[in-house]
Structures are given as C-alpha cells and as structure tokens.
Amino acid sequence: MTPLRLWLGKKKDTLTVGRGFKSIFFIVFTLLMIGGMGSRLVYLQIIEGTQHRKQAESNRIRIIPKQPERGNIFDRNGKLLASTRYPRSVYLWPMAHTKEEWRKVAPRLSQILDIPQEEIEKKLQQAGFSSSSLVRIARDLNEAQVTALKEYENELHDVEIHTEAVRYYPHGKALAHVLGYTRELTPEQLQEKKKDGYRLGDAIGQMGVEKAYEKTLRGEWGGQQIEVDGRGRPLRVLGEKQAKAGHDLHLTIDVDLQKAAEKALGGRNGTIIALDPNNGAVLAMVSHPTFDPNIFSKQKVTKKDWQTVQGEDYPLLNRALRAYPPASTFKIVTTAAGLESGKFSPDTILQTYGSLTFGGTRFGEWNHKGFGPLGFTGAIANSSDTFFYQIGQKVGGQTLIEWTRKFGFGEKTGFEFASEESKGFVPDESWKQKTWKMPWTVGDSINMSIGQGALLSTPLQVAGMFAVPANGGYRVQPHLLKDNQEAKSWREPVNMKPSTVKILRSGLRQVVTEGTGKALNVATLPPVAGKTGTAEAWKRQGVKANHAWFGGYAPADKPEILIVAFAEHSGGGGGSIAAPMALKVMEEYFQKK
C-alpha cells in the first residue's frame, strides 16, 4: 500500500470517529434539555401548580364583600334608640393597579375627598396591593364629591361608589353613655380581631351597649364572587353569600325618662340613675358632660368634634360607673352594721353634739351644734354625724368593713359595662398597713361611718345600696337587657333582721317628711323615702367643691322606682342640689303612669 493510500485511510477513520462523538454529545445534550424542561414543568404544574392556579383565579375573580346590617336597639316600649343609615362611600380595588399606578390616582382622589394621599396609600398597603377585595377609603360623600368623581372617572379607573350601612343614633346625646358608639377598627384592634372574622374598614362597638353586645349586634359578612375580564369588567356572578343581619336588642331603658333625667341634670357634671329596686332593671342612666355618638360614624372626625369628646371634663367618662366618696348616703350601711352587731338595739337613743373628739382628733357635726338626743330613725332623718361617729367607734372597723362589703361595695355590680365600671374602694387594715405603714385607727372607723375617708363607691353601687331597704333586704343586679332573665331573677339576701329593715325604711321616709330631703315631700308624688349626702371634695388647684347626693325610692311602702342623683363638684348640699334633680325624674315617671 502506498503511503498516500495509507494516510487517506487513517484520515477517513478519524473523521468517522469524530462524527460519532458529535452525535453522542448532541443526543446527551438533547436528553438533558428535555429532562430539565420536564423537571421544570413538573415543578410548575405539580409542586407550584396550586399556587399558580390561585393566582390566575385571583386575576379573574373579584370578591365584593357585602356588609351586614347591625342590629337595631330599642327601649323598653319599642322606641328606636339606634339604627342604620346608608351613606355613599368610595371603594378601591387594590389589585386593579400596581403600587406605582395607584400613586398616580391617589392625588386626584385626595383632592376630591379631602383626605391625605398618604392615608389612601396606607389603606391600600394594609389590604395588600394584590388583594381582590374592595377597600373603603371614604364615606359620607356629598353631592359635589360624587359629581367630581364622575367627571374624572376616565383617570380614576376602578374607583367605585357604593352605599353602606352606618350606625345612626336618632336621639343624639341623650343616650350616649348607655348606647356608646361604633367606630372603625384601629390597626391594633384589627390585628387582634382578625381571628374573629373582622376585616379592614370594619366598625366595632367601642363603649356602652354597642361594646357589651358586639357579638349579638354585629351580624355576619356576605359577598359575591364575580368573574371579570382583563380590564376588570364583570362577566358573571360565580357565587353569592347573603349577609346576615345582627340581632335586635330591647333595653330596660325608658327613653322619655332618660330625657327627663338629662333635663334634670342640666349643665351640671354628674349622673342620674333610675332603676327598678325589685329586679335591677335600669330605667335611665344619664352622665354629663356628654357627646354625640353620631360623630364617630363619620369617616373623619373633625378637630371640633374631637374637642367635644376630649375636653378637660372627660365627656366620654360615664360618671354612673366612676367612684366617689358616698358621704351620708352611706349611713344606711352604718345603721345596718350597728343594729346587726348586737351592740345597739332598735330603741337606742344617743346624745348628739356640736363635735366629738376621738384619739385626739376633733370631728364636727355638720350643723356645728348637734340635734340633742336621737334614735336611729331621727339620726337618719337629720343625717347627724356625731350620732354615727358613736356607732362607728363602738362597732369598730372590722364589723363596719364587713357590712360595707355585704352591701356590694368594693366589687363590680355585674352590670354589662364591666370594662367601664370601677370597683370602688373599701379601705381596711391590710391596705392601711401596706399604703401608710400604720394600723387601722378609731379615726378611720369614724370617717368611714359617714361615708368619707378613703371609701369610694360608684353611683350605681349606691343605687344598689338603696335597693336593699327598698325591696326588703335584697341586693339586685343592675342590668340593661330587657330579657336578661338571669339578672332579673338574681336576688341575694343581705341577711338583716326584719327590725333592721324596718328602722331603715322608717328613717329614710322621715328624711323626706321632716329631714334633709323635704324637697320631695310634694303632692305631685306618692310618699317618697330617701337620703341626702354631701361629700367633701377638692377640685383642681386645691379649690374645695363638694359633691351632692340624693338617693330615694317611691312609693315608700311598695317601691317601683329608685333614683340616685349625683352632682360632681356642685359646691352645694345633697338636699338643695341633688334632691330637686331626683324630684323632676320621679315626677316624670309618675305623671306618665
């Protein structure tokens, strides 16, 4: 074989081997590509398929929530106290635009709706820019705003106007502290309440009946699933759940009596409570200063509105549930402690004085001269301090404290507004040692015997105290829900002897016929029994301004209504300030009958 032929043969073999390697490489490469694509398809379709399907669904399915209508609230006679109105509101669909696109829409909305652009963007961010649910950014649109939104609809895509249910209180300020108000959830409340089905923009009861019975009144959200095209236009309804309205409530309140109490209290800071002493049903509960709960149903609370609820006299505070010294109304408890201790009998007579000295401290009589010899009935009628000093001194702190607690002081009454209600305060030996590093003294018992010192009680607790002699010796549970059978039937005996109850009722009646409460001894009323009280108190900057009390019930022999009137820092006495207030409410009640 010639060298040339040998070389050509070797060259041909080399070319054949090269082509074989290329074919193998191409096949391997192709298999790897197919394997990679297959793996990616498996990952996308199987592993992440559910997520992608959800994303595709959210791009074409729009959720339009339907707000539930809050339950109505009625008084004991069926008169409407709280209902619903239907203002027009502005909603946005977050996923309709990108975050950057919404920033172009927001300035125009801000201008028309008079709300900061940052506030609009914040609500969109809270909902999430990929959310398919509508988000409310403004409510209570006026006609000018509606017109402007329609004029600029070409640049305000996916900005919608809908009507919604908003709380309305037809009697305004008259029932503010009873009904409370609803307001949009704060971000903190929303975080806490999400687990209960609340959502961005929801309103919730913030105080009063609205808060206490939130679950009953709220109802359940409904909504529609709507298929939309690429431009967000609705194609068809895929599903619908009807919103479930909240339940109506009927209260024990009599709105006419409530308004009479509001009028009687007038411009004074304080409270008037009316209740049935036999079962604790609250017929009226007024606190002043007050506020209009309708301001919280607005999208935006104005600066002027805030000033009306954030004043230095705390208009949002329900004074019926705040603690004060009960003053001489507390002599009901001191009488019971004295008679039940066994150290005094119903026919006890004690000399009264201009003042008495105990432990080196002088304690004066309110009239500075005394009343001569008195029994329990006369001492209650004249509200003699020196008579009850002697009772407190001989009974002692332990027994007096025990009977104070038996009448319900120092604990909440069981009233529905638990988060708003104070427990008051009953001082005792352990508190004195812990706070002042001193033992309980006779002076502490003396002060407590006339409802002063560190003793504090709410007007509602004082009403509960008056109910005991009124109904013959039982504590009752104050309540607002008309069909609250458990509260209506709750009666706890204070376990007093019939003779003690008789002394109390006789003394309280004599207060009105010839004592400090003669303002209610009038022909327009059946026989009234009651007790006045004047508590020493200091206002701001050390200015002395006493609290005035009156508690009473009628008819005296078979009571059906009990009134407690309290004037905070009135500067006057219970007989001259508080008793006439109670008179007006009682006259309304009996004239109506």
UniProtKB/TrEMBL annotation:
GO terms for molecular function: serine-type D-Ala-D-Ala carboxypeptidase activity. It is found in: Cell membrane; Membrane. It is a single-pass membrane protein. Keywords: Carboxypeptidase, Cell inner membrane, Cell membrane, Cell shape, Cell wall biogenesis/degradation, Hydrolase, Membrane, Peptidoglycan synthesis, Protease, Transmembrane, Transmembrane helix. Residues 270-587 form the Penicillin-binding protein transpeptidase domain. Its EC number is 3.4.16.4. It is an enzyme of class 3 (hydrolase). The keyword Methyltransferase does not apply. It comes from the Bacteria. The chain crosses the membrane at residues 21-43. It holds the Pfam family PBP_dimer. Residues 66-237 form the Penicillin-binding protein dimerisation domain. Gene3D superfamilies: DD-peptidase/beta-lactamase superfamily, Penicillin-binding protein 2a (Domain 2), Penicillin-binding protein 2a, domain 3. PANTHER family: PEPTIDOGLYCAN D,D-TRANSPEPTIDASE, PEPTIDOGLYCAN D,D-TRANSPEPTIDASE MRDA. Belongs to the transpeptidase family. This is Penicillin-binding protein 2. The gene is mrdA.
